[in-house]
């Protein structure tokens, strides 16, 4: 299958590109730069120059492919509503050229991103095999600069490792290679209108995460209030308050997280950096 992938040179996208090619798919990756194009070509993929704001380029890439995986997102936390609006326009633009084709269109869920999700679900009624993949807050692996590394950075900067209230809220995780596998399986098999969760089984209580960080960094562990969370954790405050437990039935057929997804292993590795 020829697959158009947005965000193809990103942390998760680059793993998805390798996963797709390993299973015999041809990849056309969206990139905004010559540097990104060189990375894609070195990986054996074709480069498609464009941006999330260039809707004509997105439509061209989607129309010429046999399937689409949409991973790109503008991570501008100073204007998150603007980032969500950009994502919605991108989903609508690509969806418009896929209507009636029965081609697979896999999008990525984002916090407060109901607009894009609703647009994708509407396309499922218009001849597009849409599916939505929702990933755990911690997508860890080689090159990770996300959730866990930022928690460790905050603990170092503040001089203590924090959890909220009793710290019983659970944080889930997935390794990026397992996430890449889930995106591929969604592309290949997910029925129209599917919602798939890439997470570990039960998650880890946030107080245990804070406890591991405090031991590794040799700093105190402190309980803070929910009102203090935003100022302490910044944009991670909402995630730090959130609790998530996912049943195995929410995962794609043929996908199970591997030992790579153990959050404690990730924490121990990161905290030693």
TrEMBL record:
Domain NAD-dependent epimerase/dehydratase: 3-73
Gene3D superfamilies for the chain: NAD(P)-binding Rossmann-like Domain (3.40.50.720)
Superkingdom, taxonomy of origin: Bacteria
Signal peptide from the UniProt entry: none
GO molecular function, one term: aldehyde dehydrogenase (NAD+) activity
A Pfam family assignment: Epimerase
InterPro entries: Epimerase_deHydtase, NAD(P)-bd_dom_sf, NAD(P)-dependent_oxidoreduct
Gene Ontology CC terms: cytoplasm
UniProt xrefs under PANTHER family: NAD(P)-BINDING DOMAIN-CONTAINING PROTEIN-RELATED, PROTEIN YEEZ
Protein name per the record: Nucleoside-diphosphate-sugar epimerase
Species, as recorded: Brevibacillus centrosporus
């Amino acid at each position: 299958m020829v697959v158009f992938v947005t965000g193809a040179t990103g942390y998760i996208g680059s793993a998805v590109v390798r996963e797709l090619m390993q299973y015999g798919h041809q990849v056309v990756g969206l990139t905004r730069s010559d540097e990104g194009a060189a990375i894609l070509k070195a990986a054996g993929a074709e480069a498609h120059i464009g941006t999330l704001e260039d809707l004509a380029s997105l439509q061209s890439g989607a129309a010429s492919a046999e399937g689409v995986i949409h991973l790109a997102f503008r991570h501008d936390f100073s204007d998150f509503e603007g980032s969500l609006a950009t994502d919605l326009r991108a989903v609508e633009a690509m969806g418009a050229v896929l209507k009636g084709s029965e081609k697979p269109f896999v999008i990525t869920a984002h916090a407060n991103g109901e607009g894009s999700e609703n647009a994708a679900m509407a396309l499922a009624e218009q001849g597009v095999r849409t599916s939505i993949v929702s990933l755990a807050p911690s997508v860890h692996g080689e090159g990770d600069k996300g959730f866990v590394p930022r928690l460790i950075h905050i603990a170092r900067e503040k001089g203590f490792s924090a959890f909220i209230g009793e710290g019983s809220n659970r944080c889930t995780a997935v390794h990026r290679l397992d996430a890449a596998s889930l995106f591929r399986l969604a592309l290949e098999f997910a029925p129209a209108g599917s919602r798939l969760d890439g997470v570990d089984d039960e998650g880890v209580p946030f107080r245990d995460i804070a406890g591991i960080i405090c031991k590794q960094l040799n700093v105190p562990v402190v309980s803070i209030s929910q009102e203090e969370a935003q100022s302490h954790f910044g944009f991670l405050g909402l995630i730090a308050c959130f609790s998530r437990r996912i049943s195995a039935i929410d995962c794609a057929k043929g996908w199970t997280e591997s030992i790579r997804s153990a959050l404690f292993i990730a924490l121990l590795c990161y905290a030693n950096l």
